[in-house]
């Protein structure tokens, strides 16, 4: 109890010095708890939605996915005849059954041809209005659709796009484009996570989405009183046979939730990873804080030892302070985490994914995990300073002494750091020399960890040299003030090294990702220049296929020399060595694709692969299965028959575009896949006549005006889109890394603030002999700048090394160009100087306000 009282008294006595460490713990715990609450809330939202929208038993057509997704390569949903509905109604235990039709392979546009699909990535659903939907939707304006000229829209989509009753919209599907007037607006009675939903009457939905009457994608079955879903499923299967997919409400909800959870887990663990980086940076802040506090309380600790306190009691006193700090910061962090989660929900709402705070989910494990994590990390970070405090001798109370510095431990630390850095460098070299990307990535990960730990441990050794160089280049111009700032930074290399290391971690990741992203863009651009021989590429950025009417519009565009169609077919291959490989894809294209993509071959000619009964395979596949030009491969098309195709070309693996693709002509595939099962085009390649590129480009965009879901790009557009996509991803990652950098800045502030307190008497003496307040503030600011630049130099150098190694692995995938984004690197380095200036504002201001006489009198 005495230890706890002493610790509490010390925390309250130095509360100003502890606050930044508490903020670091708070931010890190808040990010963890915010992530957990946000992802749990999203899971709850989708759970409620899927449970509410699932009928007791759902019968789907053969080929439908477990989650009920109805998209297919043909652009039409898989269907079953209306006779199935009649048979289901006769099954035992059925209270009612209703046939429905819906599809997500559609685009809906307004009268001005603006795409009404969600920008958040949520689906666009067009289906028939039915009793099951009426359970989760309430018509708030107008009426349900009746007849081919009426459509109903959900209220969220109507509000977002300013749609009103009577407005005309168009539904674009593989069948054609159907236009209708809005007859009603319906609101969700459960949370809508962002989907755009449109309803037609059943007959119109059949004609619009499938192109034929008397078919359904689903039959929704309601159980009679006292009949369980499992028993109802058995009865339905007994009645209709096993040629259809039959699922209970739980099975349907679980399948839908499985798809959502796979995405949510990526988001969850990715964000937790960045929170872990912030915690790692926070460790340096806490170590520095307690180390300096222990040094400043040497006399106090010595007196405690002199009056009988044991080493263990002193050690426990410091750890108890850390425990109180961690608990305080963690509890506040849990509350802040809930706020972060609500903020993320509001942000997602602006992006189109509507999440209600009514579904806010705070599992008991979230605050427990947050508090435990914050406390454990804080106590572990304070262990070394506590151990040093326990070694303060009673004699230290009789003289002006600091906590003992263990020179031998410093030498061992530096030697171990050099060994780890060297081992990490060797590991990175092995990764760069790897022949396979998978094996190389493991070595890269090990090299990153070893070099990071090595740099952290060798930081105090590096601080002496690097700070002197920075001082010579930047500080000497400020005269005596600059030299004093340099000496202050060198006074305690361990402290400078730890403070700089905190900033180093975040900037190392920024530099690494910048190099990787820039190299990917440069390499992909180079590949486009070397291999793409077409002028324009038409595609749907959402991945949906291109409907036939859009293909027809492209082919009718004036000024085009040729248009190449490109389809993807699933198949099972049986190779000459007798082995069977499933889930392979055959890229079927027109023969002109050999001109559109100049793919290098190691054997044969790619143009020959488009001859009837022919195909190509890629180099790795050929080596694995002993395939040569002239070999025969059995291709069992998933939606068709089995073909015996002759290999006419083997493409090189030294490419990034279409790497690992196997080609055949569309005409060859059409011999074995029925027309009604042939997938739609995934891409279109268009080449203009000589000298008509600009005219054809405008004409092509004009031809697709009625189909806003498709984008026309020339090579310049494609490069820009690639750069923008990678840039957006990097910006998101930089935003997440900002938390770690903020914590590192707090570390600089805290180090300077405690350093000012530690040097109070020295500052008073300097003021007494003529140092002005302005010069004092400048000295502290320059010290802060040099520490920040020290961390930036280490981080940027380390990150560029990681990025260069990663690029060597990307080269195995055909991305051969290493591009260092010097503008980004220089901007980050200069930004680090401003970070240093900002971090020094408060400590410098407080130092300047010191009373000279009181400062000199300080013990």
UniProtKB/TrEMBL annotation:
Pfam family, one: FtsX
Any one GO CC term of the record: plasma membrane
Record's subcellular location: Cell membrane
Record membrane topology: Multi-pass membrane protein
Gene Ontology molecular function: transmembrane transporter activity
Residue span(s) of domain MacB-like periplasmic core: 19-236, 499-696
Primary localisation category: membrane
Keywords: Cell membrane, Membrane, Transmembrane, Transmembrane helix
Signal peptide (from-to): none
Span of domain ABC3 transporter permease C-terminal: 274-394, 736-851
Transmembrane segments: 269-295, 318-342, 362-384, 414-432, 444-475, 496-517, 732-757, 782-802, 822-845
Spans annotated as Disordered: 60-81
The organism's place on the tree of life at top rank: Bacteria
The keyword Transcription belongs to this UniProt entry's keyword annotation: no
Family annotation (PANTHER family): ABC TRANSPORTER PERMEASE YTRF, MEMBRANE COMPONENT OF TRANSPORTER-RELATED
UniProt family annotation: Belongs to the ABC-4 integral membrane protein family.
Protein name: Membrane protein
Protein species of origin: Streptomyces echinoruber
């Amino acid at each position: 109890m005495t230890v706890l009282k002493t610790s509490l008294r010390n925390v309250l006595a130095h509360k100003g010095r502890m606050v930044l460490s508490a903020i670091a713990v708070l931010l890190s715990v808040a990010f963890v708890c915010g992530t957990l609450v946000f992802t749990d809330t999203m899971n709850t939202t989708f759970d409620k939605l899927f449970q509410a929208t699932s009928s007791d038993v759902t019968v789907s057509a053969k080929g439908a996915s477990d989650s009920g997704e109805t998209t297919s390569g043909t652009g039409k949903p898989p269907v079953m005849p209306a006779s199935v509905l009649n048979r289901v109604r006769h099954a035992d235990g059925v209270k009612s059954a209703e046939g429905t039709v819906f599809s997500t392979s559609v685009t809906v546009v307004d009268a001005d041809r603006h795409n009404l699909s969600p920008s958040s990535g949520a689906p666009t659903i067009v289906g028939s209005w039915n009793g099951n939907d009426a359970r989760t939707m309430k018509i708030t304006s107008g009426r349900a659709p009746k007849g081919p000229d009426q459509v109903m829209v959900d209220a969220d989509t109507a509000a977002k796009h300013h749609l009103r009753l009577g407005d005309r919209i168009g539904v674009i599907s593989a069948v054609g484009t159907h236009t209708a007037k809005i007859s009603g607006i319906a609101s969700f009675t459960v949370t809508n996570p962002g989907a755009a939903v449109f309803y037609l009457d059943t007959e119109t939905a059949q004609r619009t989405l499938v192109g034929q009457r008397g078919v359904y994608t689903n039959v929704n079955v309601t159980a009679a009183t006292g009949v369980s879903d499992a028993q109802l499923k058995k009865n339905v299967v007994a009645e209709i046979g096993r040629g259809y997919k039959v699922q209970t409400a739980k099975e349907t909800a679980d399948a839908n939730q499985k798809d959502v959870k796979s995405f949510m887990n990526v988001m969850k663990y990715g964000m937790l990873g960045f929170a872990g980086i912030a915690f790692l940076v926070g460790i340096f802040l806490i170590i520095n804080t307690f180390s300096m506090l222990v040094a400043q309380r040497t006399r106090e600790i010595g007196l405690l030892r002199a009056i009988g306190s044991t080493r263990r009691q002193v050690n426990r006193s410091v750890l108890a302070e850390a425990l109180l700090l961690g608990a305080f910061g963690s509890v506040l962090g849990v509350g802040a985490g809930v706020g972060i989660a609500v903020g993320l929900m509001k942000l997602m709402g602006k992006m189109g994914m509507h999440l209600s705070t009514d579904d806010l989910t705070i599992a008991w494990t979230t605050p427990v995990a947050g508090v435990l994590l914050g406390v454990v990390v804080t106590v572990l970070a304070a262990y070394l300073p506590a151990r040093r405090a326990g070694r303060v001798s009673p004699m230290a109370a009789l003289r002006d002494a600091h906590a003992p510095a263990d020179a031998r431990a410093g030498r061992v630390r530096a030697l171990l750091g050099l060994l780890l850095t060297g081992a990490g460098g060797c590991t990175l070299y092995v990764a760069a020399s790897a022949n396979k990307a998978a094996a190389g990535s493991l070595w890269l990960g090990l090299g990153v960890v070893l070099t990071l730990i090595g740099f952290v441990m060798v930081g105090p050794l590096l601080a002496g040299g690097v700070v002197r160089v920075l001082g010579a280049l930047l500080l000497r111009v400020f005269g005596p003030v600059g030299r004093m700032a340099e000496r202050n930074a060198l006074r305690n290399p361990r402290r400078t090294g730890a403070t700089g290391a905190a900033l180093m971690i975040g900037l190392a990741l920024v530099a690494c990702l910048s190099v990787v992203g820039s190299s990917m863009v440069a390499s992909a651009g180079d590949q486009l220049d070397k291999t793409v021989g077409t002028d324009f590429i038409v595609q749907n950025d959402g991945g949906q296929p291109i409907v036939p009417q859009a293909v027809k519009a492209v082919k009718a565009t004036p000024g085009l020399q040729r248009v190449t169609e490109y389809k993807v077919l699933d198949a099972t291959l049986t190779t000459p060595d007798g082995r069977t490989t499933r889930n392979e894809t055959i890229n079927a294209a027109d023969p002109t694709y050999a001109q559109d993509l100049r793919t290098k071959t190691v054997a044969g000619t790619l143009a020959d692969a488009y001859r009837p009964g022919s195909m190509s395979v890629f180099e790795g596949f050929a080596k694995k299965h002993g395939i040569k030009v002239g070999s025969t491969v059995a291709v069992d098309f998933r939606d068709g028959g089995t073909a015996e195709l002759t290999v006419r070309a083997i493409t090189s693996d030294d490419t990034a575009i279409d790497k690992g693709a196997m080609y055949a002509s569309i005409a060859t595939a059409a011999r074995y896949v029925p027309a009604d099962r042939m997938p739609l085009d995934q891409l279109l390649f268009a080449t203009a006549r000589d000298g008509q590129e600009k005219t054809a480009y405008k004409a092509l965009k004009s031809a697709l005006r009625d189909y806003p879901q498709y984008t026309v790009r020339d090579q310049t557009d494609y490069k820009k889109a690639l750069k923008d996509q990678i840039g957006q991803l990097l910006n998101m990652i930089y935003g997440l890394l900002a938390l770690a950098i903020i914590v590192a800045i707090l570390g600089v502030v805290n180090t300077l603030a405690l350093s000012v307190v530690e040097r109070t008497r020295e500052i008073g003496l300097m003021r007494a002999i003529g140092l002005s307040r302005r010069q004092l503030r400048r000295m502290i600011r320059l010290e802060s700048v040099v520490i920040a630049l020290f961390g930036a130099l280490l981080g940027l150098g380390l990150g560029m090394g990681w990025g260069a190694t990663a690029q060597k692995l990307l080269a195995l995938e055909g991305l051969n160009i290493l591009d260092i984004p010097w503008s980004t690197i220089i901007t980050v380095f200069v930004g680090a100087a401003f970070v240093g200036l900002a971090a020094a504002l408060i400590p410098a201001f407080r130092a300047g306000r010191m009373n000279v006489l009181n400062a000199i009198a300080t013990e």
